[in-house]
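Predict structure. Chain length: 72.
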Amino acid sequence: MADERSRPLLAPGNEARWAEINREKAEHHRASARALSPAQRIEQGQALSQQAMELLSSSIEAGHVPRRVLWS
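Prediction complete.
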């Protein structure tokens, strides 16, 4: 346990811990998705799509992405 605290999580050798974290995260997402009704899933998907378009629009306005990406 002391070895885990002396080493940052991003340090090499923590692959097993990251695998555990990723499994827990995936299970949380699966449980959250199962808890939603179809209407809630659609609503959540629409909200995520709107966020993606706002991010793309901001990136275009900032000059990080060419304008033509909206029409490809």
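Summary: The chain has a mean pLDDT of 88.
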